Amino acid sequence: MGLDQTSKFCRICQKSTLWARPGTNHLIHLLVTLFLCGFWLPVWILASIKIGGWRCQTCGYRGSTVGRLVAFVAVPVVCVGLFLIALGAIAANRGSNTASAPPIRYQPSAATTAAESKPVMVSDDEPDADSAGITAASESSIETEYRTWVDATGKHKTEAKFAGLAFRQVTLEKRDGSRVTLPLEKLSAEDQAWIEVPLVASSPVLAGEYDIVRSCELRSGPGPDYERKVNQTATDKLGKIHYLSVDSSVTVTVLQSKGDWAKIQVTQPDFLRESHRGWVPRDVLQGGAATNKRDGWIRYACRVYSAPDKSSKLVGYLTSPSSVGVADDRSGWLRLLHGPVKDEATDEFLELSFDPGLYIEKPNFTTEIPANWNQ
């Protein structure tokens, strides 16, 4: 799938920035249309209709929802129109006595069959997985025995075993079976290293999917001495060099591992899959299962917190129906990936970094479009 890009003024960034939206792969639609003798043409036309859908590549703001609402109405209208045209063509064809041509039978060539049998991912002339030191998948890459944990002040200790890490919130299980969850930063430096080294910096699993802990630019090889990969489309559009990067809003899969570096490819969002591929330090990969990332709307105005806890620092608030992106780890809280957060005191939009994370309560979010809320 292609990627449409343009330069627009972002009211969040308060400047002209690069905006992007998923494009249409016309080559695939052309081949399918030819294969189906033209019957795929209406689908091709619908897929080419683009109304709104732009997203600021700097802050993630998706702009007004008006364009998407127009698309929601326009697409069904176009479908009905094409359906009526098809019915008219069928009726006209039945009334004609002209003999129809025999059906065209598609026979894939040997070259096409060979091309389809090739794997999707290639190594770009790099060492294969076995020589790159990729480890086999395991149920857990971290020890689970009981140990003594110390808080950041050194005053409090508890004996427990590690039970999980999500959104940088550590869960510990005591010997009596009770569990306690606390921010990773509240543990001692030694305990933080004990968790992060196995979960983040250990050899990643081939084809495993991971979240990104912090923003990082992609490089052409496994090390800081290799060149940063240029975002050529953005560079050509804006007249200034822009580099490919990944942050906490994406999900990646590991293609290779070498030393302290891993070669990754973005899998979510899908429109970055083809362009965002390169080498990153292994310590930017968050261990454990990747979170479920979704785009949607704020159904009920809600507050934004610095941690998944109402007692944490209040950052701002989101109005309804703000367009946002979230990551869901099924904890009852959602990590905010992008969205127009406002300051409660000034009612002005805030310029925020969404790393390491901002959080909202899950019931305030919905994927149902605002037009259907009152139905």
Explain what the structure shows.
The chain is α+β, with helices and mostly antiparallel strands. The chain has helices at residues 26-35, 41-48, 66-94, 110-116, 189-199, 232-238; strands at 3-10, 15-22, 55-56, 147-150, 157-166, 169-174, 179-183, 209-212, 216-217, 245-246, 251-258, 261-268, 277-281, 285-286, 292-298, 302-305, 314-318, 323-328, 333-338, 358-361, 365-366. The protein has a five-stranded antiparallel sheet with strand order 13-12-11-8-14, with no helix packed on it. Strands 20-19-18-15-21 form a five-stranded antiparallel sheet, with no helix packed on it. A four-stranded antiparallel sheet has the order 4-5-6-7, with no helix packed on it.
Number of helices: 6
Q: What is the overall shape?
A: globular
Order of helices and strands: EEHHEHHEEEEHEEHEEEEEEEEEEEE
Distance between the termini: 34 Å
Kindly provide the radius of gyration, computed on alpha-carbon positions and rounded to a whole number of angstroms. Answer: 25 Å
Strand content: 25-35%
| Poorly predicted parts | 97-143, 197-201
Helix content: 10-25%
Structural class: alpha+beta
Global mean pLDDT: 75
The main pleated sheet reads as: 5 strands, antiparallel
Strand order across the largest sheet: 13-12-11-8-14
Tell me the total number of β-strands: 21
Question: What's the gist of this structure?
Answer:
By secondary structure, the protein is an alpha+beta fold. It is built from six helices and 21 strands.
What's the SSE blueprint?
Blueprint: E1 3-10, E2 15-22, H1 26-35, H2 41-48, E3 55-56, H3 66-94, H4 110-116, E4 147-150, E5 157-166, E6 169-174, E7 179-183, H5 189-199, E8 209-212, E9 216-217, H6 232-238, E10 245-246, E11 251-258, E12 261-268, E13 277-281, E14 285-286, E15 292-298, E16 302-305, E17 314-318, E18 323-328, E19 333-338, E20 358-361, E21 365-366
Antiparallel strand pairs: 1-2, 2-3, 4-5, 5-6, 6-7, 8-11, 8-14, 9-10, 11-12, 12-13, 15-18, 15-21, 16-17, 18-19, 19-20
Helix pairs in contact: 1-2
